[in-house]
């Protein structure tokens, strides 16, 4: 085999093995056909793609690839790669801080989270292969002072997920990756739902082939987690991606109030029913909110929509825990 004279030729040699091509595409976050198009010049990778490519290659191939890229005056040197992949750009961090300082309290949570979602999806899923990012919240403590479930809140995705995931929110409990992460107060991940048996509890949704969750912490208290799902298996192999997701989680934590964080010892999650069972109840959420607001107004004790929604969420949580407990007792 002749010595490659360009980075495209070197890449062509690397991806000539179908297994290697699949593995490299998964790590870089693109389709295998995209790698082939790069080798022919049919498609031109963006700088971030080239940096991800370098990061994914073994040491010797990485150095050779970097040298060939530099010959073409492409500034993707190995020395600058870690800063680009592992760290957020400070101008974006400043935008989030400015947003937090100037946004009215009533819309801060939604506005800040969506600002971060948009940036994260562009960075983590530039090829729009499929990713969903959700904020998962601790439900308020029950009468016993313990937190028994989590609830998906705001979220955003790229196809095959919907752009706005808030309408698909469900409850999560001890059976879920999010539940495990909130209980342990440390990040974790599932690399491939379909290939391996995991010790972690992990119920997964449609399209989801790998996932990671990062706890949302403040003064050693927890408010929930950020749950990131990918339509690709093994997507979270890259430590740079996990670092970025951790950074995004720190920014999302700025949208929370101190009272939304709970001591870890309050977390006692229950196992909750499946997605299908939950959606049978959640489909009536809006009707329940309107009915509750109407009833409260008729009694001379009007509720805001936010107050009514929180009460309905709590009623639904109680129903789901009861359903789960009844099934456990019956078995």
Give an overview of the whole structure.
The radius of gyration is 23 Å and the shape is elongated. It is α+β, with helices and mostly antiparallel strands and 331 residues long. It has a 6-stranded antiparallel β-sheet, with helices on both faces. Helix content is 50%, strand content 12%. It folds into 3 domains: 79 residues; 180 residues, GAF domain (Beta-Lactamase, 2-Layer Sandwich); 56 residues, no CATH class. It is built from 13 helices and 6 strands. About 2% of the residues have low confidence.
List keywords for this structure.
331 residues, 3 domains, elongated, Beta-Lactamase, six-stranded antiparallel sheet, 12% strand, alpha+beta
Provide a quick synopsis of the model.
This protein has 331 residues and is an alpha+beta fold.
């Amino acid at each position: 085999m002749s010595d490659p004279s360009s980075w495209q030729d070197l890449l062509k040699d690397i991806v000539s093995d179908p297994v290697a091509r699949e593995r490299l595409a998964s790590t870089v976050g693109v389709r295998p056909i995209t790698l082939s198009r790069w080798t022919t010049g049919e498609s031109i990778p963006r700088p971030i793609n080239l940096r991800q490519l370098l990061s994914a290659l073994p040491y010797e191939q990485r150095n050779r690839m970097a040298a060939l890229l530099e010959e073409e005056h492409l500034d993707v040197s190995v020395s600058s790669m870690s800063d680009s992949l592992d760290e957020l750009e400070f101008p974006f961090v400043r935008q989030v801080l400015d947003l937090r300082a100037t946004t009215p309290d009533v819309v801060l949570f939604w506005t800040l989270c969506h600002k971060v979602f948009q940036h994260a999806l562009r960075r983590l899923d530039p090829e729009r292969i499929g990713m969903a990012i959700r904020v998962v919240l601790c439900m308020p403590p029950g009468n016993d002072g313990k937190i028994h479930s989590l609830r998906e809140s705001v979220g955003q995705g790229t196809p095959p997920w919907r752009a706005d995931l808030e309408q698909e929110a469900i409850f999560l409990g001890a059976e879920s990756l999010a539940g495990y992460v909130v209980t342990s107060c440390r990040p974790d991940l599932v690399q491939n739902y379909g290939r391996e048996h995991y010790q972690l509890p992990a119920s997964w949704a449609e399209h989801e082939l790998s996932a990671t969750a990062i706890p949302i912490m403040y003064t050693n208290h927890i408010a929930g987690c950020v749950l990131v799902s990918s339509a690709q298996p093994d997507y979270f192999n890259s430590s740079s991606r996990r670092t970025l997701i951790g950074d995004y989680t720190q920014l999302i934590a700025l949208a929370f109030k101190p009272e939304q964080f709970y001591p870890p010892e309050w977390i006692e999650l229950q196992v909750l029913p499946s997605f299908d069972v939950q959606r049978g109840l959640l489909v009536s959420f809006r009707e329940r909110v309107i009915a509750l607001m109407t009833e409260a107004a008729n009694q001379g004790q009007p509720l805001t929509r936010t107050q009514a929604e929180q009460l309905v969420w709590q009623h639904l949580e109680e129903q789901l825990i009861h359903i789960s407990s009844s099934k456990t007792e019956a078995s």
